[in-house]
Write a structure and sequence with these properties.
Number of strands of chain A: 9
Number of helices of chain B: 3
Helix content of chain B: over 70%
Largest interface: A-B, 68 and 64 residues
Radius of gyration of chain B: 22 Å
Order of helices and strands of chain B: HHH
Structural class of chain A: alpha+beta
Number of helices of chain A: 10
Number of strands of chain B: 0
Oligomer: heterodimer
Strand content of chain B: under 5%
Chain lengths: 347, 122
């Protein structure tokens, strides 16, 4: 290994050039330098996330509370989905390192096989992230409510299913007596957001018609205060407490039937989110988005290199170093996710 | 295209079948380790809740386990552990110094800023 570089390295030849103190090719070195700078970008993002979190005045969201859903299975699985995403990325990192290893043995078939596996893993990860974003944006059924004293609380309990709406007053689209069975939750949320739900369970739909909501009773277990108001305070140590029992139910009903707009926040956008402070949503979108973009470009690089492998370009060249270089990038993406996983989801 | 002033370091990285077997063994070991660590993290997170008194300890555990994971990815998967020492330190030392500096600077500042805000309002 590297004998020709070693042999020339004595006092006579040391000033004659042709010696690399790193014993690495130009391309690999440049990849490393790029990765160091990219790592500084991610380091900066995560540290600024820490900065915002350490001076936040409102409760910072709890990862296991915010991310506790699985596709098709619903709620109650704290962090399992994110752990699964982490596992997918680790496994695709492993298949990549196996591709690199096969390259060292000039095993074209092996490189092809493992590169394909890596690309599939990458697509799985990007897809998982899309699901998670969609879930984050749409939010929970209850949302976060703003109480009369200015405090904000998330609602714990069981959301009663909506059976249908019966139109009681005709509007532009719906006739009186019509039963609406589609897109119920979305319309219900929209009406609450606009303050278009009254205490008798009559909502105004977007076309101006009025309808009776046929819905099971909501069972409210607790209102967890996430932002201090003049009356209710966050539970910190011995100070403040969660609102439970009939008081919680009364307050929740009061808010959704207040007739005022924007007393409830559902899901997340760049301005506000139901999970915590405004910056939480922004950091979520930026950090996971920036990482997801890295994964996506990594998949693109991998596909390009795979085409090169299939064409036999690297075999003719006598080495598979290009696979190694994209491999470095791919492992880096995995490395970043390990940190995002810890600092965004776990702690 | 043949140039004798360029040393093709890329050609040095080939290894034999036997070495390949050894390398793959190591890879599978690291895979197992990383998966187990992730599993432990999730288990810890779901057993111990954030309002329990031992949560700060759990947090420190998470960060330590993350550093272990990161170490294995960089040293084994990214092969940095087998590169020349010079290359290893040129990459690691400046980064680690800078990031420690940034963490200490920003987090202490942040606690101060938060204190001012809670005292005097935004």
């Amino acid at each position: 290994m590297a004998e020709h570089a070693e042999q020339k390295n004595d006092s006579k030849t040391a000033w004659g050039g042709k010696i690399s103190p790193f014993n690495a090719s130009y391309g690999k070195l440049m990849m490393w330098f790029f990765l160091v700078s990219d790592a500084l970008t991610f380091g900066g993002l995560l540290v600024s996330y820490g900065f915002t979190r350490f001076n936040a005045q409102d409760a910072w969201p709890i990862g296991e509370e915010t991310f506790n859903s699985l596709p098709f299975l619903g709620h109650g699985y704290p962090l399992i989905y994110v752990a699964l995403m982490t596992f997918i990325l680790i496994v695709s990192s492993v298949t990549m390192v196996l591709a690199v290893e096969a390259g060292h043995r000039m095993d074209k078939k092996g490189v092809t096989k493992w590169m394909i596996a890596t690309i599939i893993g990458g697509f799985f990860f990007v897809g998982s992230q899309a699901w998670e974003w969609s879930h984050f944006i749409h939010g929970s059924k209850f949302g976060k409510i703003e109480l009369a004293d200015g405090s904000q609380a998330i609602v714990k309990g069981h959301f009663g299913e909506i059976a249908n709406f019966t139109v009681t007053e005709a509007g532009d689209h719906h006739k009186k007596g019509e039963v609406i069975t589609e897109d119920l939750l979305h319309q219900y949320h929209h009406a609450i957001l606009m303050g278009h739900l009254d205490s008798k369970g009559i909502i105004r739909l977007h076309d101006g018609s009025m309808a009776k909501v046929n819905k099971e009773h909501d069972h409210i277990d607790a209102l967890v205060i996430k932002k201090n108001g003049s009356k209710y305070h966050m539970k910190v140590g011995t100070k403040g407490k969660n609102i439970t029992g009939s008081e919680a139910e009364k307050l929740y009903t009061e808010v959704i039937t207040s007739g005022e707009a924007h007393r409830v926040i559902y899901g997340a956008d760049l301005k506000e989110n139901e999970y915590g402070p405004q910056q939480y949503g922004q950091f979520f979108f930026f950090i996971t988005g920036f990482h997801g973009f890295h994964v996506f470009s990594g998949v693109c690089f991998n596909i390009i290199i795979l085409l090169g492998v299939l064409k036999g370009t690297y075999h003719k060249r006598g080495h598979y170093e290009m696979v190694e270089k994209t491999g470095l990038y791919w492992h880096f993406v995995d490395l970043v996710w390990v940190f995002v996983f810890t600092f965004f989801y776990l702690v | 295209m043949e140039r004798d002033d360029i040393i093709e370091y890329s050609l040095d990285t080939h290894h034999s079948e036997e070495e390949g077997v050894k390398a793959r063994k190591k890879i599978w070991f690291v895979t197992l380790l990383l998966s187990v660590i992730t599993g432990v993290e999730v288990a810890l997170g779901s057993i111990i809740h954030q309002d329990s008194p031992s949560w700060p300890m759990v947090k420190i555990c998470f960060i330590l386990l993350t550093l272990v994971k990161a170490g294995y990815i960089v040293m084994s998967f990214m092969h940095l552990g087998h590169e020349r020492k010079a290359l290893k330190y040129v990459i690691l030392i400046p980064y680690i110094f800078f990031i420690i500096y940034l963490i200490i600077l920003l987090l202490t500042e942040s606690i101060y800023v938060g204190g001012v805000w809670s005292k005097y309002g935004y």
